[in-house]
Amino acid sequence: MYRRLLAASAVFALLSGVAHAQDVKTAETLRDKALLDRTAWDVAEDLTTTIGPRIVGSPAMARAKDWGAAKLKALGFTNVKVEQYAKSSWTRGEESAELTAPYPMKLTIVGLGRTPATPPEGIEAEVALFHTYAELVAAPEGSLKGKIAVITQPMVKAQDGYGYGVAGISRRAGPVEAAKRGAVALLIRSVSTSDSTVPHTGVTAFGDGVTTIPSAALGVPEAEQLERLAKKGPLRIRLKLASTVNPNNVAWNISGEIKGSEKPDEVIVIGGHLDSWDVGTGALDDATGVAITTAAAKLIGELPKHPKRTIRVVMWGSEESGGASEAYLAAHKDEVPKIVLAGESDEGADRIYGLKLPAGTQKTPFATTVANVLAPLKIYVARDAAENGGSDIEGLEEAGVPSIELRQDVTRYFDYHHTMDDTLNKVDPAQLAQNVAAWTSLIYLVADSDIDFRALRPAGAEAGKRRY
Amino acid sequence: MYRRLLAASAVFALLSGVAHAQDVKTAETLRDKALLDRTAWDVAEDLTTTIGPRIVGSPAMARAKDWGAAKLKALGFTNVKVEQYAKSSWTRGEESAELTAPYPMKLTIVGLGRTPATPPEGIEAEVALFHTYAELVAAPEGSLKGKIAVITQPMVKAQDGYGYGVAGISRRAGPVEAAKRGAVALLIRSVSTSDSTVPHTGVTAFGDGVTTIPSAALGVPEAEQLERLAKKGPLRIRLKLASTVNPNNVAWNISGEIKGSEKPDEVIVIGGHLDSWDVGTGALDDATGVAITTAAAKLIGELPKHPKRTIRVVMWGSEESGGASEAYLAAHKDEVPKIVLAGESDEGADRIYGLKLPAGTQKTPFATTVANVLAPLKIYVARDAAENGGSDIEGLEEAGVPSIELRQDVTRYFDYHHTMDDTLNKVDPAQLAQNVAAWTSLIYLVADSDIDFRALRPAGAEAGKRRY
After folding, report:
1. Which of B60, B220, B425 comes nearest A195 by C-beta?
2. What CA–CA distance (Å, rounded) separates B409 from B338?
3. Helices A365-374 and A21-35: crossing angle, nearest 10°?
4. What is the mean pLDDT of chain B?
5. Is the pLDDT confidence value at B442 over 70?
6. Best residue of B197, B200, B240 to probe chain A, by most A CBs closer than 10 Å
7. Arithmetic mean of pLDDT over chain A
8. Within a 10 A sphere around the Cβ of B338, how many other Cβ atoms?
9. How crowded is the C-beta side of A153, counted as CA atoms within 13 Å?
10. What is the mean pLDDT of residues A342-348?
11. What pLDDT sits at residue A208?
12. Cβ distance of A281 and B103 shorter than 8 Å
């Protein structure tokens, strides 16, 4: 009941706010300007070129932190902050694998993020091959004793990335499940939609109380070769993984603001993550997310008058192995009620095709306005509500902050992500600009409105459900 | 004049031979059967799976030799021969490269085939970057003293592979030209049409009297990264290459026949090469060429009555670093006048789009018949004559043997060739079958005819011009 009353007053605010013709016109002007603006390209190029790969805890990540703060200042952001937090780091060493029977052949692998190392001499063992994660889980405990488990489950290519959650369980839970059954190591077919031998890393279960084993991802052709060979007879593989862990390392969330002109304490948090995996240069994951949101806020900041609310860009410091979201929430707990909306760009740089608004906002005049402004960019406003705006804003979402999802077409994204092929040449400048246009016009409309998205949320609507 | 008389009698033979309606019907039946036949797929799968990578001089190549002879026998070929010849071999060792300034970053490289090794500790030096091969050649002698030369010239994607010859000069001649100018090592952008970091190997100049330097190919994104970084300041790279050479090794040309029913001493030589690079499994280069030509001959051999002439499939033993062609010519010198035609399939497994016939054959009724039989496969008969049917038949061509070119669409081929991504999953079974259908019907028409292609050749027509 309380919620309903709030909702009604919010709708009033919304009508009086966004129906304002000048706002729509400004949003459209920003949108069209963004399509021709090269800030995002320059930011993505600069980050990937001058910093390169930047895994948490690396010297490159420390350089990236300085780069981020300097970039925000150079682009006109104010209140630039570098917020340090404790973060354990993991550093990859030398890795190799080879088939040793029925004949010797090198295998292209990459250790999963946070995998334990093998003994220095490696592990050589017979292979137990499973075509799906479910097949492995169906194996009795103890049945893989002394073996290297291999899971060859492929990933479905889908515009919305749905296949990542399905296939990704081999990476997330496979090592622990294989360990339970006695396996000495696990190899998974890369969680990838490509046909390439370039293997995909990504974080796997780790930490106190987790019993796991050395684990790596195999190139797609190698996984298929093993499947064919396994039909003909037993296989043996030798695997070497090395790595070091520093439990006392640090990471940083970096932020800067376009200060609101009328309600500067009401804040919209947008951003991408600054860290990347140690392979590739983290172009799609997530230099472009940083670039898109930074460019969008910068364009809005160049208006003769800033919108009412503050827009804060956060360059998140440790998305790939977690912790940035929790650290931010801990540092900004008191501010949470004033964070009116959050969003993250972390699905590459291909075009946005759909927008999910916070629960309760879909059928409002605000949604109609947004739909009209985004329509020329070929973006629809979805009937269903945002469920998770990105890993780094999960903490905020769980604390009650409404979020948006500007869904990118990830048909190509999972060909490259978490690989050495995540490089600048996979970024299409025209699609990148379409992203900036969408963020710029949408965030402007939010920032210059008085809408209380929390108040529109229907009773019982849940916050934050992890997408991937 | 002598040639003209011969040509006239050949046209007569052709009219009386190929205009035979039964031959056309048989060719069409074979063509349509081939489209549904899985022999080629099975051969390509078996070779890539049970043998894997098979560089000349490796234990895998010795297994491939036995595999080839056994496969021909199993498929009904007769007169199966394994012809050994002397062939120096080169074996890759550990290789690595990294940018050391302005910041440390691993570079994905692969040593060029037959490159000399670096000292065990590697070479670290400043970079001299050239955007094209021509830029490097324009540098004065001595100007690269103590430097690592880098050539970043890209390759044009073209259906006919024309870009390979243009860009490939960096690989073929770059090391020698860089050495002349004092460079201590050379890195080239992969001779590749992909956007992938997977680097492309391939043979470079080597042997007695060649002064060269350690040379490797860089992934495409790495080459582009170096170009961008070079604009900002000096670069340094560390390169390690290891390899061993065995000058006293051997290779083998393997052959089997579908014996002619009327003129068994007249021979048509077709085939692909059995060797591959040591990265990938040599699926497109050239398991599929072996598979296509073997399957075509096998299908013809299953006819109730063999065609008049003998069809000989040769699995060539050392295409990648040369020597198979010369060895075959030396061993078969006396037989050359009876080899009526030669052809090689060595451009992957994508569809054939054009046929080039031997010079003088283009405007004959035979060409018309062939054009009609191949038209449903979407293959045209080109106005221009075959210039080079493949590296392994160059020796035969230079000795006067007419050749054909069944030109494959190589739009995708140079994304993968000479890389670890040359694997079975790049083979499209439908396009593979179209290849078999073309070879089967064309070779049947040749084998059951009496045409003397040599006699049709106009005076002054040149043999063998290297395509790539």
Report:
1. B425
2. 31
3. 30
4. 94
5. yes
6. B197
7. 94
8. 15
9. 22
10. 98
11. 84
12. no
Residue A2's pLDDT band, with cuts at 50, 70 and 90, is very low
What residues of A are in contact with residue B108 (Cβ under 8 Å)? 420
* DSSP state at residue B411: T
Q: Which of A423, A424, A427 to mutate to test the interface with B (most CBs of B within 10 A)?
A: A423
B357, B367 Cβ separation under 8 angstroms: yes
| Chain segment A287-343, per-residue pLDDT in tens | 999 999 999 999 999 999 999 999 999 999 999 999 999 999 999 999 999 999 999
Pairing of strands A109-111, A215-218: antiparallel
Pairwise CB contact (< 8 Å): A229 & B51: no
Architecture, CATH, for domain B91-245: 3-Layer(bba) Sandwich (3.50)
A319 is catalytic: yes
A245's CB contacts (< 8 A; 6+ apart) are A88, A89, A90, A91, A114
- The partner residue sitting opposite A224, judged by closest CB among B221, B420, B425, is B425
**pLDDT computed for residue A461 by the predictor:** 67
Give the CATH class of A92-244: alpha beta
Say if CB B250 and CB B86 are below 8 A apart. yes
Tell me the average pLDDT across A223-227: 98
- Tens of pLDDT, residue by residue over A189-218, are 999 999 999 999 999 998 888 999 999 999
Instruction: Give me the pLDDT at residue A376, please.
Output: 98
Residue B20 is predicted with a pLDDT of 79
CB of B312 closer than 8 Å to CB of B257 = yes
Residue A430 has pLDDT above 60, yes or no: yes
Number of alpha carbons in the 13 Å side-chain half-sphere of residue A90: 23
What average pLDDT does range B166-195 have in this prediction?
97
What pairs with residue A124 in β-bridges? A238
User: Residue A251: helix, strand or coil by DSSP?
Assistant: strand
List the one residue out of B110, B158, B157, B154 whose CA is nearest residue B132.
Answer: B154
Mutate to test the interface with B, among A196, A231, A428 (most CBs of B within 10 A): A196
In this prediction, residue A12 carries a pLDDT of 46
Q: Where are the domains of chain B?
A: 2-87+249-456, 91-245
User: Can you give the pLDDT at residue A60?
Assistant: 98
Check CB contact under 8 Å for B198 and A195.
Answer: no
Q: Are the C-beta atoms of residues A397 and A371 closer than 8 Å to each other?
A: no
Least confident of A200-209, A240-249, A252-261, B430-439: A200-209
Residue B459: predicted pLDDT: 82
Rg (CA), chain A: 23
Under the banding of pLDDT at 50, 70 and 90, the label for residue B108 is very high
Q: In this structure, what token pair is assigned to residue A369?
A: 């306005």
Active site residues of B: 319
The C-alpha R_g of chain B, in whole angstroms, comes to: 23
Q: Which of B225, B229, B421 sits opposite A221 (nearest CB)?
A: B421
Residues 6+ apart with CB under 8 A from B275: B54, B55, B56, B61, B64, B251, B282, B316, B317, B318, B319, B320, B324
Q: Assess contact for B458 and B359: CB atoms under 8 A.
A: yes
Distance from the Cα of A224 to chain B's closest Cα (Å) equals 8
Q: Distance between CA A3 and CA B445 in Å, rounded?
A: 83
Residue B466 has pLDDT above 50, yes or no: no
Q: Say if the Cβ atoms of A424 and B221 lie within 8 Å.
A: yes
Environment class of A420 (CB within 10 Å of its CB; exposed 0-12, middle 13-18, buried 19+): buried
Q: How confident is the model over B251-265, as a mean pLDDT?
A: 98
> Which residue, chain included where needed, has tokens 């060859």?
A152
| pLDDT on residue B277 | 98
Architecture of domain A2-87+249-456: 3-Layer(aba) Sandwich (3.40)
For A464, the 3-state DSSP assignment is coil
